[in-house]
Amino acid sequence: MRVKALVLVAVTLTLAASAWASSESILYNFCSQTSCVDGNTPYGYLVADSSGNHLYGTTYQGGAGAFGEVYELTNSGGVWSQSVIYSFTGPSNGDGAYPFGGLALDASGKNLYGTTYQGGSSSQGSVFQLTNSGGTWKETVLHTFDDISGSDGYYPYGGLTFDAAGNLYGTTQSGGKFGGGTVFQLKAKNGKFTYKVIHSFAVSSSTAYSPYAGVVVGKNGYLYGTTYYGGTVWNAGSVYQLRQVSNVWISSVIYNFLGDSLGQYTEAGLTVDSAGNMYGTTYQGGDFNFGGVYKLTAGSNNKWTQKVIYSFKGYAKKDGAYPYFAGVTMDASGNLYGTTYQGGSSSANNLNFGTVYKLKAGTLKESVLWSFGTSGDGYSPYHQPIVVNGKLYGTTNSGGTHGGGTVYQVIP
Questions:
Q1: What is the model's pTM?
Q2: Which structural domains are found in the chain, ordered by start?
Q3: For residue 301, what pLDDT is reported?
């Protein structure tokens, strides 16, 4: 059922030149309708269509069934309107519940794909598809996670990724043959998808386990992802690689986080540049233990070199702190953008509202583009923004006029 929400005119908050040179607009405030049928708590990241006039995302809660929903934001003449295009109905109906990650839009622009953290017939999560036909969206559950027998994963936090052949890949934080989570594939053929677990992580500090984020496809066609735990000595997390050889998936750990100034614990995924280098964030560690941004560079014989390219300075320096699930987004010029869950210059009384930041290409100089927490603003962003036509779009899981979170736009 398509639920029409209020049409909101974005109110732009422009700060004085002595602060940031950027401006922020709130495009939508969640929980504006009775019982939050328009959704609330938008943890997930956004995805845009090719025109940039349609943004899609999820809310973890709210919707007509209170199990979360999928929404669309449409730009018409500079005015954004929100519509709920699907409300999850929960496990009693065999449907998903509580989508945490973002969405993937296929090449046709007519199909959205995502995961729910819970729901499905076993209440362990689901993979869903939304198909647009004549302006009406129809949901199909592609897979219900069921790890009762130990053969499947459960609790998918991350979103999904397409490869060049149209296959989908994702992760579960728990379950699998060895209990440490899984990487799964939905293989595409003639418009249908076949589900398969292609890797199971073992719960052991000598290897990688507990992936919160999804995977990315590298320049070589291999899959890459991060785990929160693992890493030989410090159990501070890892970066792994999956490659297919003769229809067999081979896993290898390409980097183990070493803690302290070198970073530790990552819930965030990776971003790949045109040269095949990868970028990500750690929730803790760095020079000031507020987290950092790192770069992985490939060498010969599948050897990778890691470098922390920025360490967050935290509250005292009015910088961001703790990038939580937020990785980084790269624009066409090589600039990196991300968010921190806490920190920023609006962090009075330890409220720690969070930031949007930029790392300039080449120099890697950091600038805070926006500090959340001004009057009526959102706060506590979980994921990085996306870049659309030179503007940044993202979500905060809290704050806004009605306290249910926001969709924001930042013009750098």
A1: 0.93
A2: 3-411 (2.130.10.10)
A3: 86
